[in-house]
Amino acid sequence: MKAGKKVSSDTPLFELTLRKYEKPQTRKEREMVKRLCLSLGLLQPGDSRDVVVDVLHILFKSGKRKQLLSVEEIEKKVIINRKLHKLQLQGIAQSNIRRQIKRLRNIMLVEKVKSRYRISEFLSASEIFAEKIEKFLFQSVIQRVKEYLAAADELFTRK
Fold first, then answer.
1. Element (H, E) at 60
2. Distance from CA of residue 91 to its chain's centroid?
């Protein structure tokens, strides 16, 4: 092997953060979506840059009506949502809205259909988690961790 040649990358192929909080107690929509974002690692505790909450909130509401939204429509609704909740209009640039949509797409909560976006297959949040995150994403991460554990066992376990 050549000196300095990289064998593997330290950049993860996929990253999944899950957090456990107390049981849901709020009936306020935005607060519930914020807790969900925190639980799924989309938002860091104490983070004031929380436009991802508004994007997901808007998409959940449009999903209830089986509506697909363009980026421009999401942006307008995010602004209205933030004003309604008396929040600063930070992070509302279209480039940031697109970035937040991409993050939601990466964990399969949101999908793109002909340049418009929706909650995946208009499923419920519980169904999306069970079918896409738990069965697909989570299992693939667990499988890879098991491969690393087996490799570590081979290297460090005496036989």
1. helix 51-64
2. 17
What are the b/e assignments for 27-58, b being 16+ CB within 10 Å? eeebebbbbbbbbbebbeeeeeebbbbbbbbb
> What residue type is 111 in one-letter code?
E
Domain extent at residue 47: 29-122
Contact 100, 90 (CB under 8 A): no
Using one digit for the tens of pLDDT, what is the confidence trace for 73-123?
999 999 999 999 999 999 999 999 999 999 999 999 999 999 999 999 999
3-state SS assignment for residue 85: coil
Q: Residue 76 and residue 131: Cα distance in Å, rounded?
A: 31
Residues 96 and 143 both lie in one domain: no
pTM attached to this predicted model = 0.85
Q: Is 86 helix (H, G, I), strand (E, B) or coil?
A: coil
How many distinct structural domains can be found in the chain?
2
